[in-house]
């Protein structure tokens, strides 16, 4: 197992280097002079230009600039945001829990609904339940989620008035930030009203972000179950006279779980993309909205570091999924 | 010996292969519905100037934000209502079909061409060519596609064409991976060896001998990419980084519409519905293609 993990780690080293090159190249690929681009409309005096050029190291050869950049990143130095003048990493760490909370809740909805729906659709193959579930799943899979979010706001926030339109929590609640997760922090502070407020803010964005993963998981679970239900060992289990619930739950589902876990893992990258749209619509103060705001404010240092950090996080999660996959399925380890 | 016996009867059946494909495809009712809708959309896009009641950018200043007639609007000539500057929404949607379908075709063609070529090179030559190409693909895939497309558009500048280029770039690794995997499994087959012995050059082996036998998964992936391209282009338009106003691109139409979610729901609802219907139709076709082209599913 250790050997498997080490092998996987060795394989992703080139990708990690590639991600650093991509984020390093980003600022240098922007049209025009990077310092003038950073200075914005105000411009700089020639003297200040030279100072800045030296300060950012643009006077060095390109490979040396790259090594300095990587060295800085390894020391936790991701630069200073041009918009707020705060270290980018501080901004990122403040906002990141909001995205994680949203993504986890979205995934919770997707898994909790998608797996049972897929199982029942497979058991009742061809039934009206199967057909409706798969129709809804394909619609969810085809959904432009930014529009879906607007529709939910129109209906639940505008028409019914059940949920707030934006933000993470009502502004009149104050409690210490411990984990950065509003749901957990409000409970730690012993403030049930704040918890309810946080939940009401979270539910619509989580539904929107969870829609496509839900559809994908339901479809994948169904097809994995159908494949497994046709296997000889399931027929044997049935022939032995086991009750149907046990056959489906133990013999079939555990084997069908393997491709489903992979699918769930693969959704993480998509979730980060979906978070950009979801957070923008609901003004959710997370990484996705921060990236969009940084791009529109031309805060390229933030965009660069965001690109690097998000790339590394997505890759780290994919690595975890690979390892988890090998834990569930010993056959993978041997290959 | 065994492979020869299996290979012989399947060899001369190219035409009946097509017929067999249609047989399985048409068994899937959803796929046929999707195909009909898609063909209708293409016709709408081609004949947009004939079908649309008004030009896409004609403003009726007296009828700003007019509700559709079925929702209490008083102007029956605006079937789906008018937008914030009094343009007929139905006409804009009809012209918008041109953009969405063009985006789909352009992106898939570009991604397919580059992805297949890179995948063929990687799978055929292996070694450092393979390592280099596939590592670059890994890097592209490490980023969420929408984020990467956004960043590329930030570099290239906002606009529909740049958005299409960016989306093509983020979608092509899927084609490269699929092609490479298919080439690896086909390359050691005997028909390839025999073509090589007969003196076929590298290019001929790659594109004429091997590639046609990898087409199944590529066609399915192309369909998926078509709908993805439309969704991502709409998302970029919605975020202000794709097609720019007053282009009647569906996502761009939604960007302005956000201000009216409480006062004029039809401005928000209609363009999104158009995106959903188009993407759904293409995905239905994709499901049908997958079932028809995947021999493993055929048996069940």
Please, could you describe this protein's structure?
The complex is a heterodimer of chains A (335) and B (300). Chain A has helices spanning 2-29, 34-39, 46-55, 62-74, 88-123, 128-141, 145-159, 182-188, 192-229, 232-239, 244-282, 287-296, 300-328, 330-334. With 335 residues, chain A is mainly alpha-helical. In chain A, helix 9 (192-229) crosses helix 11 (244-282) and helix 10 packs across helix 11. In chain B, helix 2 packs across helix 13, helix 5 packs across helix 11 (215-238) and helix 5 packs parallel to helix 13. Chain B has helices spanning 2-10, 14-27, 29-46, 48-51, 89-125, 127-142, 145-156, 160-187, 190-197, 202-210, 215-238, 250-257, 265-293, 295-299. With 300 residues, chain B is mainly α. The model of chain B is unreliable at 1-13 (pLDDT under 50). The interface between A and B is large, with 47 and 45 residues.
How many beta-strand runs of chain A? 0
Strand content of chain A: under 5%
Determine the number of helices of chain A (DSSP H or I, runs of at least 4 residues): 14
How far is the first residue's CA from the last residue's CA of chain A? 12 Å
CATH H-level homologous superfamily name of chain B? MetI-like
Mean pLDDT of chain B: 86
State the largest interface.
A-B, 47 and 45 residues
What Rg of chain B do the Cα atoms give? 23 Å
What name does CATH use for the topology of chain B? MetI-like fold
The unreliable regions of chain A are: none
The number of distinct β-strands of chain B equals: 0
Principal-axis shape of chain B equals: elongated
């Amino acid at each position: 197992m250790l050997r498997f993990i080490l092998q996987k780690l060795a394989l992703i080293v080139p990708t990690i280097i590639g991600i650093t090159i991509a984020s390093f190249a980003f600022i240098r690929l922007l049209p025009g002079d990077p310092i003038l681009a950073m200075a914005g409309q105000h411009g700089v005096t020639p003297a200040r230009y030279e100072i800045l050029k030296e300060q950012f190291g643009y006077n060095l050869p390109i490979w040396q600039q790259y090594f300095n950049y990587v060295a800085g990143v390894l020391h936790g130095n991701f630069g200073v945001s041009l918009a707020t003048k705060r270290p980018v990493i501080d901004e990122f760490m403040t906002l990141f829990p909001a995205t994680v909370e949203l993504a986890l809740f979205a995934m919770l909805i997707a898994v909790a609904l998608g797996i049972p729906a897929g199982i029942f659709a497979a058991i009742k193959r061809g039934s009206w339940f199967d057909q409706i579930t798969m129709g809804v799943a394909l619609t969810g899979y085809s959904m432009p989620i930014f529009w879906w979010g607007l529709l939910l706001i129109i209906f639940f926030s505008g028409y019914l008035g059940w949920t707030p339109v934006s933000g993470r929590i009502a502004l009149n609640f104050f409690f210490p930030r411990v984990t950065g997760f509003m749901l957990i922090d409000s409970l730690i502070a012993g403030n049930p009203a704040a918890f309810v407020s946080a939940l009401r803010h979270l539910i619509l964005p989580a539904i929107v972000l969870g829609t496509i993963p839900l559809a994908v998981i339901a479809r994948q679970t169904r097809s994995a179950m159908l494949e497994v239900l046709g296997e000889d060992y399931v027929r044997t289990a049935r022939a032995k006279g086991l009750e149907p619930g046990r056959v489906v739950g133990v013999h079939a589902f555990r084997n069908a779980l393997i491709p489903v876990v992979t699918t769930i893992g693969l959704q993480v990258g998509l979730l980060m993309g979906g978070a950009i749209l979801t957070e923008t619509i609901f003004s959710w103060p997370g990484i996705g909205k921060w990236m969009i705001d940084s791009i529109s404010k031309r805060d390229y240092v933030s965009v660069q570091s965001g690109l690097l950090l998000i790339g590394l996080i997505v890759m780290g999660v994919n690595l975890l999924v690979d390892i988890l996959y090998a834990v569930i399925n010993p056959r993978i380890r041997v290959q | 010996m065994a492979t020869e016996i299996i290979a012989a009867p399947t060899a001369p059946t190219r035409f009946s292969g097509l017929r067999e494909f249609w047989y399985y495809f048409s068994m899937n009712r959803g796929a046929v519905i999707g195909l009909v809708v898609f063909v209708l959309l293409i016709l709408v896009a081609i004949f947009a100037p004939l079908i649309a009641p008004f030009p896409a950018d004609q403003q009726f200043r007296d009828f700003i934000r007019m509700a559709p007639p079925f929702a209490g609007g008083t102007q029956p000539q605006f079937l789906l209502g008018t937008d914030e500057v009094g343009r007929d929404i139905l006409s804009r949607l009809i012209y918008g079909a041109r953009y969405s379908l063009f985006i789909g075709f352009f992106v898939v063609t570009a991604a397919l061409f580059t992805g297949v070529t890179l995948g063929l090179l990687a799978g055929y030559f292996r070694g450092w060519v393979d390592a280099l190409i596939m590592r670059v693909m890994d890097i592209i895939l490490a980023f969420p596609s929408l984020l990467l497309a956004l960043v590329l558009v930030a570099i290239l500048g906002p606009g529909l064409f740049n958005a299409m280029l960016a989306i093509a770039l983020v979608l092509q690794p899927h084609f490269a991976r699929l092609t490479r995997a298919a080439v690896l499994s086909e390359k050691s087959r005997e028909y390839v060896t025999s073509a090589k012995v007969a003196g076929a050059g590298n290019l001929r082996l790659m594109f004429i001998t091997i590639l046609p036998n990898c087409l199944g998964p590529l066609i399915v992936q192309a369909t998926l990419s078509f709908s993805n391209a439309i969704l991502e282009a709409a998302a970029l338009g919605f975020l202000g980084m794709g097609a720019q106003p007053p282009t009647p691109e569906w996502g761009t139409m939604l960007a302005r519409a956000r201000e009216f979610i409480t006062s004029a729901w039809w401005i928000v609802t209609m363009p999104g519905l158009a995106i959903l219907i188009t993407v759904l139709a293409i995905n239905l076709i994709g499901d049908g293609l997958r079932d028809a082209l995947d021999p493993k599913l055929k048996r069940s």
